Amino acid sequence: MESTEGDETEALIMPSSCNVTDYQSTNNNDKKDGAPLTLDQAVEMIGFGRFQIWMLMVFGWCRLADALGNLAPSYIMPKVSCEFEASDLELSLFPSTGLAGILVGSFVWGSIADIKGRIPVLVLCEIINTLFAIGASTSQSLWFLTVMRFFWGVGLGGSVCVTSTYVIEFLPIKNRGRYMLTLPGSFSMGLLLIAGLAWLIIPHEEWTWYIQGYTFNSWRLFLLVTAVPAIASVPLLLTLPESPRYLVQVNKIRKAKTILQYVYKKNKKIPLSQVNFALQRVAASNSTRRELKKFSNITKNILSIITTPEMRKRFVVSSIILSSLAFSNFGLTLWFPTMIERMDESNATSVCGASIAPSNKTKWDNSDQTPVYIDTFIQAAANIPGHLVYLLLIDTVGRKLLLGVSMILNAVSVFFIWFVSSPTGSIVMSCVFTALSRLSGDVAHLVNAELFPTKIRSTAMGLQKAVFEQISSILAIVLMGALLSVHCAIPILLNSCPSLDWWSFIV
Known about the structure:
The chain has 507 residues and is mainly α.
């Protein structure tokens, strides 16, 4: 399956070192000096330079903020359970509603980004993340905390899918895979950061204040701190221009031309007076241009994905891959620490031989938390080898082959969990699984972003994030807990399902 990134011919661009009028010819076959270039060719000509470096730094920070927002609930659940005396069922609603919010936000904001622009949507999503994270930190009841988590998830869903869309639209094709590593790499740094913040803040129960019936303690302070990177990303995002690909889609040709000139000047370090582009739109009637600005075009974009045979094939195949990876990653990553703990408590020789009897430990015991944070650090650090393999091989081995091999190895690593006979071995295998899952996820998300044309890219990725990845994640949380009580082998077999899907990108 080939990328559509080089197939777009919505705009023609001609570089020039002197003032010129808009190029009037639409002859794309003329490749001599002064011949019009496609928008993709213009991005290649602009190249990679200071602008892209700053862009990756900004969105790396945004992705780190997303990591803190995604992982924060997992660290406060023991405290929440103890303070609000919540049952397991009531407590499960807290993370589940967050995933439901991400589901809604991914689809809604991804679609709006194709209509109203990337930067406005990203800024609004980060503001939403901040406001509802602060709201969650003031919660005095479980139901209010759950509601705040849902809307917090709505903002996170938009931020995650639109970030990848914007970044890929400014990167030249050459070595794009390496540049895109900034996003998952920053997310992994966020995993390490939030584990450290939790370790530093949550155990301090003496950090508790009571004001007229209002309680503010360590886990609420932790939520408040996790909101800082999100609000700090807003002024950073405002330093970036809108995507010229989006601007061409809505016929804002002059603005797109200005942005291309600005980026060229930043990268090539030449005076702006010497940078000039002739830009011409060669497609879309006036009625189509008006339609692109309407929210009704969201429906049109979805129908375009469904009714166009090639887009439908790409959407279905990539959705299967992403769903499998989401199920495997969320399911095993979430429950593996519990499996290790049960094995240790029951003195079993393997994870699957552990007793499923509940622990006699209290709901919250600060003295027991140090090993948990250490294991979290180790597992988060295990993402680094996956990133390094991706960095070394993505532009040499190729997307499809690397994706197929990594998914097969990912599934094989799950089977070896059966042979683990000690807590140390369990941690080692969990790290192997984490590294391979990260490698598979990095490649799959890069390929997925390249599959769809600009006009429907955010809509397609938002729809996949919402309908497929988040539903798979929710199912993983529920099914893993239910099936572990039957037999360990069943969820392990389910988590090896990505090996059945690697061929999808080959066809």
